[in-house]
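Help needed: design a sequence for this.
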């Protein structure tokens, strides 16, 4: 079975994670996947929120990105930590629809 790695680069997303993570988990039901939270050292507790959610959802892997700051470096950091055959990057603010994940994965597998 093909494994999917979803990368969520985050900065100041403590409020959105409790909304978007359950949506991603639901969209990926039946898939082999991991959800990597690549946090850019958010001062609002985003990483703490991700850690709390990882207790409920074992697919969630909260990671602190300590290198060069910014969206692209955080995405690359997440890709480097990923173990999946398919890598997918999504915004954590709900801009990308989790319900589209199965269709995207199907197109590549």
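Sure. Designed sequence:
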């Amino acid at each position: 079975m093909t494994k999917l790695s979803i990368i969520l680069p985050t900065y100041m997303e403590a409020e959105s994670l409790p909304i978007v993570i359950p949506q991603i988990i639901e969209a990926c039901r039946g898939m082999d996947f991991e959800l990597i939270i690549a946090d850019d050292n958010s001062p609002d507790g985003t990483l703490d929120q991700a850690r709390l959610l990882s207790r409920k959802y074992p697919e969630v892997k909260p990671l602190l990105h300590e290198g060069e700051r910014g969206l692209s470096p955080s995405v690359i950091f997440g890709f480097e930590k990923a173990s999946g055959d398919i890598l997918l990057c999504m915004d954590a603010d709900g801009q990308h629809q989790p319900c589209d994940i199965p269709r995207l994965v199907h197109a590549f597998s």
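The CA atoms of residues 26 and 99 lie 8 Å apart.
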